[in-house]
């Protein structure tokens, strides 16, 4: 097994849980401090070690793994998922350089010693790559672990480099057969990143729903991608799209007045203005811009009950499974009625769970029954009401509220807007009521998405007018695929030393400026700061030793680094840690100089040679791209300049030509008459 860090420093190793020892953790809180680990250290690697102490350990040669059983639901139907953490040392990696880092803009990062993959397999990947032995899952071979993390289609797959930078690779919700929603999975990932004190996380946004790219849909509706809810912002674009281009495209599409679209949309379908007026009448606020329309439709879709409830519109009380509880269905229904009436009496205000419980106890004496009903009623539809439940972020208590949704539900005399035989864009009912279903909102949203945002025929038309503007801006938004969230950094730049353990220990933020004896042309930036902990009366040589240990553990290229001095040549003026305050240089903290030995092996030198070859690769695309961005490219056979296949007219579903000439070479090529 490859340990969490180097084996000569056992104090950081996670403890191995005994085989067969199993614990269950709540999905909803997993990753928070204290759930399960007190992740209160200042460095990512130390917090990761604390978390892994609670995992069920499995070893497979160079690679190790930990598993966590997470409880999604307890009642009425118990549901669990497995989270695996797979440790991939550099010796087991297929590639030294991380392509994800390059595409997201971190190409100059040093190579790290390890990656830590966090994986929740889907049902398909679980069946294919985990073997059931005596009721417990095990990984028999190293290849199985590598195959697991490389497989596409996990419910969750993200990984961290050992320096705290990471990437979210895969996230799949209910639509792909998962038992978890996309929000549940993303909340878990965000809690893990926050709790572990990750530095930065990058992702390639390919999220979609019902045929719609969410980075475009949410970009127009809310001014940010779907992942923006968790703080992800523009990182890098493809096809030459910069942050300025992306922001301008978002702004231009969002602010287009709907009144200007009426003429163009009427030419598409004469029912389109009627469809627009339907949503205007449903909204309490005027829908003026394209952003207003999509934002309201997303909000309306989230408020409506699922369509399977529409099949039973006269059900006044929800049905709760009583097979796993001691109360009859009749008693449960009576308790539900009492709770609903208690919420009605407070006139749709938010009240605490305790207040609801106290009011209902005047009629229901069984407190166990009330607790069961209150837990089951959260965010459920009861008749014409939606029972909302939420955690008050200030008081930290559960609160309940009743919301009247009768105007959104179908009536008893079949006034449903969209029967199965009606067209996908929907129509007004004959009596003028704007009754609508959740499924119909999604269909209408797709109609607007397809014919307004994705109408590339309008882009190619010389008379396209406003649709030209929307089409070009939509393409720019879709070409912005890489988003980044910065999690953990030192906000107070003046505090580069911290007193710990009552003042007996000192935390110092430092980095190493490496000096290489071998020749290479790569410009390597200093690694980000790490916090090392030493005694308050430690000598300077002890600080050097602790810094060497930390950076050797993290970075492959610094495995034999030897710290010799403070970078500014001030070694002579200090001898103890308490004199270092004078060396804290603004945002840099303590900068140490370290020599990287002559033991750089063949693989390291080959890595730098490959990097130099990539830098020599000429990329000059008409879109403005100068670097690889993960999109398919083709090389001219004469000038050897690389361009995007899309930019030279090769469609995604077409093969790259065996012989390709760029436009410039093709125009200047002199015909040879003697050729047949």
Structural commentary:
Residues 620-666 form the Zinc finger PHD-type domain. Keywords: Metal-binding, Transcription, Transcription regulation, Zinc, Zinc-finger. Pfam families: PHD, Ubiquitin_At1g33420, WHD_plant_repro. This is PHD finger protein MALE STERILITY 1. The chain has 676 residues and is of the alpha+beta class. The chain is 31% helix and 20% strand. The protein has 20 helices and 25 strands. The strands form six sheets. Strands 1, 2, 3, 4, 5, 8, 9, 10, 13 and 18 form a ten-stranded mixed sheet that branches. Strands 19, 20, 21, 22 and 23 form a five-stranded mixed sheet that branches. α10 (290-303) runs antiparallel to α15 (438-453), α12 packs across α13 (353-360) and α12 packs across α14. The longest helix is centred in the middle third of the chain and has 17 residues, at 329-345. The protein is globular and about 80 Å long. Mean pLDDT is 78; it is low at 1-13, 132-136, 309-319, 410-434, 457-463 and 490-494.
């Amino acid at each position: 097994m490859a340990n969490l860090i180097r084996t000569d420093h056992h104090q950081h190793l996670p403890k191995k849980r005994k085989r067969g020892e199993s614990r269950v953790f709540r999905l909803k809180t997993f990753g928070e401090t204290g759930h399960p680990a007190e992740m209160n250290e200042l460095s990512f690697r130390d917090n990761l070690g604390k978390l892994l102490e609670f995992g069920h350990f499995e070893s497979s040669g160079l690679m190790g793994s930990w598993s966590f059983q997470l409880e999604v639901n307890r009642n009425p139907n118990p549901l669990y998922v497995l989270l695996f953490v797979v440790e991939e040392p550099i010796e087991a990696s297929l590639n030294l350089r991380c392509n994800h880092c390059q595409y997201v803009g971190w190409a100059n990062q040093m190579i790290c010693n390890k990656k830590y993959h966090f994986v929740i397999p889907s049902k398909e990947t679980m069946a294919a790559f985990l073997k059931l032995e005596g009721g417990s899952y095990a990984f028999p071979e190293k290849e199985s672990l590598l195959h697991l993390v490389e497989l596409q289609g996990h419910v969750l797959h993200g990984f961290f480099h050992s320096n705290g930078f990471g990437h979210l690779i895969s996230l799949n919700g209910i639509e792909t057969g998962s038992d978890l929603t996309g929000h549940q999975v993303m909340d878990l990932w965000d809690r893990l990143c926050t709790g572990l004190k990750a530095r930065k996380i990058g992702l390639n946004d390919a999220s979609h729903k019902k045929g719609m790219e969410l980075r475009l849909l949410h970009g127009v509706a809310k001014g940010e991608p779907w992942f923006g809810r968790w703080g992800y912002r523009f990182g890098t674009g493809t096809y030459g799209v910069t942050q300025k281009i992306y922001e301008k495209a978002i702004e231009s599409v969002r602010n287009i007045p709907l009144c200007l679209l009426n003429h163009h949309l009427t030419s598409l379908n004469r029912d389109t203005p009627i469809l627009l007026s339907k949503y205007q009448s449903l909204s309490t606020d005027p829908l003026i811009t394209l952003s207003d329309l999509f934002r309201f439709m997303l909000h309306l879709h989230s408020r409506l009950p699922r369509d399977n409830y529409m099949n039973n519109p006269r059900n006044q009380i929800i049905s709760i499974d009583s097979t796993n509880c001691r109360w009859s269905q009749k008693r449960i229904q009576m308790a539900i009625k009492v709770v609903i009436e208690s919420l009605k009496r407070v006139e749709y205000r938010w009240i605490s769970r305790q207040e609801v419980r106290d009011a209902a106890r005047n009629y229901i004496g069984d407190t166990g029954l009330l607790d069961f009903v209150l837990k089951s009623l959260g965010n459920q539809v009861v008749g014409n009401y939606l029972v909302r439940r939420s955690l008050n972020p200030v008081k930290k208590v559960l609160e309940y509220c009743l919301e009247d949704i009768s105007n959104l539900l179908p009536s008893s005399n079949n006034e449903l807007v969209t029967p199965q035989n009606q067209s996908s864009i929907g129509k007004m009912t004959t009596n003028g009521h704007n009754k609508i279903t959740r499924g119909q909102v999604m269909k209408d949203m797709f109609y607007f998405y397809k014919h307004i945002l994705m109408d590339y025929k309008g882009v190619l038309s010389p008379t396209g007018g406003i649709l030209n503007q929307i089409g070009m801006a939509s393409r720019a938004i879709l070409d912005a695929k890489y988003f980044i969230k910065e999690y953990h950094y030192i906000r107070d730049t003046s505090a580069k030393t911290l007193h710990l353990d009552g003042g007996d220990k000192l935390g110092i933020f430092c980095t190493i400026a490496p000096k290489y004896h071998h020749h290479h042309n790569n410009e390597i930036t200093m690694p980000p700061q790490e916090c090392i902990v030493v005694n308050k009366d430690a000598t300077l040589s002890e600080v050097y030793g602790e810094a060497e240990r930390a950076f050797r553990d993290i970075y492959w290229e610094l495995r034999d680094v030897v710290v010799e001095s403070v970078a500014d040549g001030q070694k002579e003026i200090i001898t103890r840690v308490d004199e270092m305050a004078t060396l804290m240089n603004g945002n840099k903290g303590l900068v140490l100089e370290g020599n990287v030995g002559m033991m750089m092996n063949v693989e390291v030198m080959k890595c730098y040679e490959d990097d130099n070859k990539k830098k020599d690769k000429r990329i000059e695309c008409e879109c403005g791209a100068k670097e690889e961005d993960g999109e398919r490219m083709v090389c001219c056979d004469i000038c050897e300049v690389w361009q995007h296949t899309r930019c030279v007219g090769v469609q995604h579903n077409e093969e790259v030509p065996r012989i390709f000439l760029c436009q410039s070479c093709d125009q200047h090529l002199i015909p040879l008459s003697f050729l047949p």
